[in-house]
Amino acid sequence: MDSLRNMLVMIELELRRLKHDRTELYSRAVQPILWIVVYGPIMGAVKAIPTGGIPYTDYITPGVLIQSTTFVSIFYGLTIVWERDSGILKKLLVTPASRYATVIGRSMASGVRAIFQALILIPVALLIGVKFLPNIAYFISALLIIFFASGGFAAISILVASFMKTRERFMGIGQAITFPLFFSSSALYPIAMMPPILREFARFNPMSYVVDAVRGLVISGDFNNLPIDLVAIAIFDAIMFAVASVSFKRIIE
Amino acid sequence: MEFAVDVRGLTKVYEGKVRALDGVDLRIEAGRVFALLGPNGAGKTTLIRILTTQLKPTSGEAYVFGEDVVREGAEVRRLVGYVPQEMSVWTDISGYENLLIYAKIYGLSSPKRREIIWDALKKMGLSEVANDLVKTYSGGMIRRLEVACTMLTAPKILFLDEPTIGLDPSGRKVVWEELTSIRKEYGSTIFFNTHYMDEADLYSDEIAIINEGKIVKLGTAEELKRSVGGEVVLFSVEGNSVNEDVLGKVRGLSLVNDVIANNSELSVVAKDAETVLPDVMEVLRVEGVRVKKTSITKPTLDDVFLKYAGTRLESGGRISEVRKVRGRIRRG
User: Fold this and answer.
1) Å between A35 CA and nearest CA of chain B
2) Would an 8 Å CB–CB cutoff place B306 in contact with chain A?
3) What's the confidence (pLDDT) of residue B186?
4) A206-215 and A226-252 helices cross at what angle (nearest 10)?
5) Which of A34, A189, B50, B110 is surrounded by the most beta carbons within 10 Å?
6) Does pTM surpass 0.80?
7) How far is residue A106's CA from residue A223's CA, in Å, rounded to a whole number?
8) pLDDT greater at residue A79 or residue A66
9) CB neighbours of B324 closer than 8 A, spacing ≥ 6?
10) Is the CB of residue B30 less than 8 Å from the CB of residue B65?
11) Is A166 part of the contact surface with chain B (CB cutoff 8 Å)?
12) Percentage of chain B surpassing pLDDT 90?
C-alpha cells in the first residue's frame, strides 16, 4: 500500500515538472514529426513495403510514436544519474519509501512523459491524414500500453545508468540502445522482410511487441497477436524492474 | 541510558580496498549538537551514510536511538532527518511542491499536510518564494529548503553532511540560526559533518576529530583546546627589569602553569588567560616592572587538529569543486 502510494507520488512529481517546463517534449517531437511528415509519404510513394493495404505513413505512425516514447524513457535514466550526482537519490533512500518502490516509481514516472510525447505527435499525424480507428477505448488502451512499456524501457536505462559514471557518457549510450531497437522492430517494415538473423533478434525485441499491439489498436484493428503482445510486455517489465532494482544498489554506492 | 548514536568497532571497506572507516567507536547523548570534524576522505560522509542506513558497514555495529541501522533500517529511517552534502531538492518545481512531494512520501495525512508545510516554510523564511521554481533560489535558500524538508517529520535526530559547504558567511549564519531554533523547538539531536573549524567551535556541544577512518579525539571545543596545552599571555616589558625574584612571585600565583622570561618578554602559560592577566599585572606593578603591551594567544581547533591528526585541514580546493557542482546542478 505504501509502495503504491510512493509510486503515485513519483508520477505526481513528473506531472508537476511537466507543468512547469515542456520544452523538452517539444524539441524531442521534431525528429518523429520528420519521420511521419517527410519519410512516410516519400517511402509510401515507392510502394516497396508490403503493409497489408494500409497507407505507409499510417503503417509507420505507431512505430515512430513508440520510437519517440522509448527515447523519452531511455533518456529518463539520465534523470536518475542526475539525481545521483545531486543528493536527491541519497535523500530518497533515507525516507521510509522502499527502494523497489523508488525504482519502479521512477520508471513508471517516465511513462507520464511518454504519454505526453505521444499526445503531441498524434495531432500532427491526424493533420497529414493518418486514419486512426475511431474508437476511444482502443485509443486509451494503446496509451496504457505505451505507459507500461515505457516503465520497462526506463528500467533499462536505470540499469545502464548504474554502470555509467557521468552524464555525458550516457548520452551516446542512449542513442546506441534506442536505434537498434527501432530498426530491429516492426516500426518501419514488417518483420518478415528482415534478413533471418535480424528476424531472430526482432523476436526478442520488446519494441516489436509494443508496436504490434499499438498498431493493432489504433490503425489496423488486427487483434490476433494482442494477447501475446501483452504477455511479452508484462514479462519484459517484470524482468527489467527486477534487474533494475538489484542494480540500483550500485548506483547508491 | 539510551544514546542517540551508539557506534561500536565500525569499519567500512569499499570494494575490498579502500578502508573508509577503521574501527570507529562513538557514543552521543540525546539532545546534543555533535560535530564530526575532519579533512576530505577522513570517513565523515561514510559514517553519516551508514548511520542513515544508506550503506551497510563491513563490520561492527551502529545504533540510532537503540535501533540497529542494518537490521532495523526501516525504524531508523522514521526517526532521522537527513540533508546530504549535495543538493537534495528538485530544481524544476517550486519550493512548496518539493515539500509536498516529500510530505507525501513520508505519508503525512492531507488535512495537516498544508499547514505543516507552510509552517516549515515560514520558519525557514521561505514563504515569500514558496511558489517560485527552486532554480531561482540562492544556495543559502536551497539549504534552508532542505532543512525545512527535514522539519516535516520533526525528527529525533538530524544528520547534516557539510550543511554550509559552498555558502557565503551570511548564508552560513542564517542556516545555523534556523538549525538552532529547530533544536530548541523539537529537542532534536544534531549530528553534522564539517571541515569548518569555526562552525564546529561555535555551534557544537561536542566534537570528534576523525582522520583516516579513526576518531582521534573527542570532547567539547574547550576540552580539545585545553588538551593541546594552556593559553599564553605575553607581556612586553621595559628594559630587563624582570629578575628571578619577580619570576618566582609570578610563578607562585595560583592558576599559573608556567612562566618563561626572554629578554624583555615574559610569557605566562595558564589554563585561562583572562583570569590570570590581572593578577600578573598586579604583581608586576608592585615589583616596579613597567608593561608596554600584553597579548593573549589561545590554541585553536586548528592546533588541536594539527596535534591529533598530524595535518592541517586543507579545504580550499574541495570547496570550489563543490561550488562548481552545485552551480552545474542549479543550471540543470
Assistant:
1) 30
2) no
3) 85
4) 140
5) B50
6) yes
7) 31
8) A66
9) none
10) yes
11) no
12) 36
Question: How far apart (Å, rounded) are the C-alpha atoms in residues A181 and A176?
Answer: 9
Domain boundaries, chain B: 5-225, 230-298
8 Å CB contact of A86 and B82: no
Instruction: Give the pLDDT score at B332.
Output: 42
Q: Is A201 helix (H, G, I), strand (E, B) or coil?
A: helix
Rounded CA-CA distance A77/A54 in Å is: 35
Residue with cell 616592572: B289
Q: Is the Cβ pair B105, A13 closer than 8 Å?
A: no
pLDDT tens digits for range A32-41: 999 988 988 8
C-beta atoms of B105 and A17 within 8 A: no
* Mutate which: A10, A23, A24, A86, vs B, most B CBs within 10 A: A86
Does an H or E element contain B269, and which? strand B265-270
Q: What is the mean pLDDT of residues B71-75?
A: 89
- How many residues in chain A? 253
A85 touches chain B (CB under 8 A): yes
Q: Which residue has the cell 588541536?
A: B304
pLDDT band with cut points at 50, 70 and 90 for residue B118 = very high
- CB B325 to CB A85 under 8 A? yes
Which residues pair with residue B158 across a beta bridge? B81, B190
Contact B92 A17 (CB under 8 A): yes
Q: Which residues from chain B sit within 8 angstroms of residue A11, using beta carbons?
A: none
Query: Touching check for A1 and chain B: CB below 8 Å?
Result: no
Cβ neighbours of residue B281 under 8 Å, at least 6 residues apart? B291, B294
Grid cell in block for residue A98: 522502499
Residue B313 has pLDDT above 60, yes or no: yes
Which 8-state DSSP code applies to residue B62?
E
Cβ of residue B77 closer than 8 Å to a chain A Cβ: yes
CATH annotation of B5-225: 3.40.50.300
Contact B89 A21 (CB under 8 A): no
Minimum Cα–Cα distance from B158: chain A residue: A94
Cα–Cα nearest to B208, from B22, B25, B12, B64: B25
Closest CB to A94 among B53, B86, B101:
B53
Per-residue pLDDT tens over the stretch B119-158: 999 988 899 999 999 999 988 899 999 999 998 988 999 9
Helix H segments across A47-166?
56-85, 88-93, 99-127, 136-161
C-alpha to C-alpha distance for A109 and A77, rounded to whole angstroms: 11
* Neighbouring-strand partners of residue B260: B267
**Which of A94-103, A121-130, B146-155 is the least confident region?**
A94-103
Residues listed for chain B:
332
Mean pLDDT of chain B: 85
- Does A136 contact chain B (CB < 8 Å)? no
